[in-house]
């Protein structure tokens, strides 16, 4: 595994990297990203700064052309829970960008990545000019064709938040084998300007360090203390508050919408959002209110 010190240094070298980024022609874009078309399956691993394995899970990625842009569908399989994200990869002013959303037709991406092709490796950096949630990342990916077959490998780092609300760096490694191209029909693409003009509402927040004072539930059902502690330990790194489609983003890999059960806690669902609180509910009807740190001065 690559030294995590290299990962940390790379994060703080982002400004110079973007300033010196080389432009990509339409022909180069088609040639490089045409190799991605098809289905890829494999595994991701997440490591701490101390090289401790924090998580590993199955991943599938599928890519196809939609006009002049590459579309992608990414599925993270955690065993008892799956999360799906949708990518759009296109050239904006001769620079490749990836826009990641939680549904194929979403106008507002969860985050954006700006790329450069260096030594047969795509290097993606978080672009905070579109979605500024304060979290940086650098992800490298490379297609390899050798005696073992064709596969897509990933390595890199990103910032996250621990249970105490402190920022940390986690390392990512992935290995996906090529499974073939199903000749998916092209889809009608959205214009790049529609993506660039999107105005998502994702705000940084740190999870509360301590339990808030007990509150009475609307249905009079006593809450479970273990569930409350679990909810307070969620590493919530982003909130999209747009009414009926409100979502919370946890550790970049888990996204929960209203009414959706939490990973590893199928009896607890994200129920509502207010100006100051996130509200969860278990299958008994007990209510749990978590203070929104992003709204505190």
Written account of the structure:
The protein is mainly beta and 297 residues long. The chain folds into two domains: 4-196, Calycin beta-barrel core domain (Lipocalin, Beta Barrel), CATH 2.40.128; 225-295, SH3 type barrels. 12% of the residues lie in helices and 46% in strands. The chain has five helices and 17 strands. The strands form three sheets. It has a ten-stranded antiparallel beta barrel. A four-stranded antiparallel β-sheet has the order 14-15-16-17, with helices on one face. Strand 8 and strand 9 (149-161) form a beta hairpin. The longest helix has 9 residues, at 26-34. The protein is elongated, with a radius of gyration of 20 Å. The termini are far apart. Mean pLDDT is 77; it is low at 1-19 and 188-218.
Topology:
Blueprint: H1 4-11, H2 14-19, H3 26-34, E1 38-47, E2 53-66, E3 69-77, E4 82-92, E5 95-101, E6 111-118, E7 121-126, E8 137-146, E9 149-161, E10 167-180, H4 192-196, H5 225-232, E11 236-240, E12 247-250, E13 254-257, E14 261-262, E15 265-273, E16 277-282, E17 287-291
Antiparallel strand pairs: 1-2, 1-10, 2-3, 3-4, 4-5, 5-6, 6-7, 7-8, 8-9, 9-10, 11-12, 12-13, 14-15, 15-16, 16-17
Which features would summarize this protein structure in a list?
297 residues, mainly beta, Lipocalin, SH3 type barrels, 2 domains, four-stranded antiparallel beta sheet, disordered N terminus
Sheet bearing the most strands, described?
10 strands, antiparallel, barrel
The strands making up the biggest β-sheet line up spatially as 1-2-3-4-5-6-7-8-9-10
At CATH level 3, the topology of the largest domain is: Lipocalin
Q: Would you state the CATH class of the largest domain?
A: Mainly Beta
Spans of at least 5 consecutive residues with low confidence: 1-19, 188-218
Helix content: 10-25%
């Amino acid at each position: 595994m690559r030294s995590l010190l290299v990962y940390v240094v790379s994060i703080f070298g982002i400004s110079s990297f973007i300033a010196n980024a080389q432009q990509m022609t339409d022909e180069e874009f088609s040639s490089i990203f045409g190799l991605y078309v098809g289905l890829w399956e494999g595994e991701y691993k997440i490591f701490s700064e101390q090289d401790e394995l924090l998580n590993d899970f199955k991943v599938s990625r599928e890519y196809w052309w939609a006009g002049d842009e590459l579309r992608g569908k990414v599925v993270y399989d955690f065993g008892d829970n799956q999360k799906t994200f949708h990518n759009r990869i296109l050239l904006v002013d001769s620079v490749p960008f990836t826009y990641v959303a939680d549904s194929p037709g979403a106008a507002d991406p969860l985050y954006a990545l700006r790329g450069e092709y260096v030594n047969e490796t795509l290097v993606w950096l978080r672009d905070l000019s579109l979605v500024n949630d304060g979290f940086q990342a650098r992800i490298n990916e490379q297609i390899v064709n050798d005696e073992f077959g064709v596969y897509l490998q990933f390595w890199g780092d990103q910032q996250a938040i621990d249970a105490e609300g402190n920022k940390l760096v986690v390392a990512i490694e992935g290995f996906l084998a090529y499974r073939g191209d199903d000749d998916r029909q092209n889809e009608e693409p959205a214009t790049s300007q529609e993506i660039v003009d999107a105005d998502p509402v994702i705000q940084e927040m740190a999870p509360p360090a301590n339990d808030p004072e007990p509150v009475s539930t609307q249905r009079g059902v006593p809450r479970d203390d273990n569930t409350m502690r679990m909810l307070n330990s969620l590493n919530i790194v982003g909130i999209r508050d747009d009414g009926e489609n409100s979502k919370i983003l946890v550790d970049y890999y888990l996204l929960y919408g209203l009414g959706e059960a939490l990973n590893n806690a199928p009896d607890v669902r994200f129920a509502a959002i207010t100006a100051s609180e996130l509200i969860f509910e278990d299958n008994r009807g007990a209510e749990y209110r978590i203070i929104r740190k992003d709204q505190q001065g």
